[in-house]
Amino acid sequence: DTGVSQDPRHKITKRGQNVTFRCDPISEHNRLYWYRQTLGQGPEFLTYFQNEAQLEKSRLLSDRFSAERPKGSFSTLEIQRTEQGDSAMYLCASSLGGARSEAFFGQGTRLTVV
Amino acid sequence: AQSVAQPEDQVNVAEGNPLTVKCTYSVSGNPYLFWYVQYPNRGLQFLLKYITGDNLVKGSYGFEAEFNKSQTSFHLKKPSALVSDSALYFCAVRDSGNNYQLIWGAGTKLIIKP
After folding, report:
1. I want to staple B30 with a disulfide (CB 3.0 to 4.6 A). Which of A38, B65, B96, B103 is the partner?
2. In contact, A6 and A21? CB cutoff 8 Å
3. A55-102 residue pLDDT tens
4. Alpha-carbon span B67 to B93, nearest angstrom
5. Is A33 within 8 Å of B100 when comparing Cβ atoms?
6. Is residue B105 over pLDDT 80?
7. Residue A111 pairs with which residues in a beta bridge?
8. Beta strands B103-104 and B108-113, pairing class
9. b or e along A83-113 (b: 16 or more beta carbons within 10 Å of the residue's beta carbon)?
10. How far is A92 from chain B (nearest CA, A)?
């Protein structure tokens, strides 16, 4: 499968715990995005990488959230001290460079904080 | 301000009938427009995009969309609906002057009844 893959697909954690999600983009894509989606809503932008550089981070993203993309390949999204409000689907997408390119999404990681 | 509106939360269509899912947008520059579909508990799947040229764009699964600059619309259409088309549909726009940011609509739930 040469699409975007995300791991894990589901994560249940207790409030206050740290969680880390992984995204493997399509190999030739230099752009990588993280989004959050809650039920019945459109994707909410979290952050964006071009190669290994994190070029944009949403102001809505608290300091508890951090993302990395070492060597411009896979990416990780970490949430520290999880809260119930963090429960959502976390989507990763990748694309070629340029404004005309469409993004390809992974199947998402569903986080439930109990 | 850039925005996307999907005025219908839900669209109900009988199988075999034509369907339309509406989208209007607002950007300051030229728009790049995208449609995605999301099945339950899955990531978003790219359907089609308008960048430039012919106003009628054809995409996956028999879908097409018509770009109308004067009405700032990009409605998704299909001549004959299938029950398997039932899903959540998202419209997104990128300003040609913005290299990466996608602005998303809230989504329209499409229900095709047998």
Report:
1. B96
2. yes
3. 988 887 789 999 999 988 999 999 999 999 999 999 999 999 888 889
4. 12
5. yes
6. yes
7. A11, A88
8. unpaired
9. eeebbbbbbbbbbeeebebbbbbbbbbbbeb
10. 9
Token reading at A52: 């290994």
Distances (CA, A) of A89 to A41, A110, B27, B82, B89: 11, 4, 27, 27, 17
Q: What's the CA dihedral at B100, B101, B105, B111 to 10 degrees?
A: 30
Pair A80, A61: CB distance under 8 Å: no
Query: Does A93 touch chain B if contact means CB atoms closer than 8 Å?
Result: yes
E strand intervals along chain B: 3-5, 10-14, 19-21, 24-26, 31-38, 44-50, 56-58, 64-68, 73-78, 87-95, 103-104, 108-113
Residue of A nearest to B39 (CA): A107
The token duo for B73 is 């619309």
- Nearest-angstrom CA–CA distance, A35 and A103: 12
How far apart CA B26 and CA A4 sit, in angstroms, is 30
Q: What angle do CA A21, A66, B37 make, to 5 degrees?
A: 55
Q: Which residue has the tokens 């005309």?
A: A100
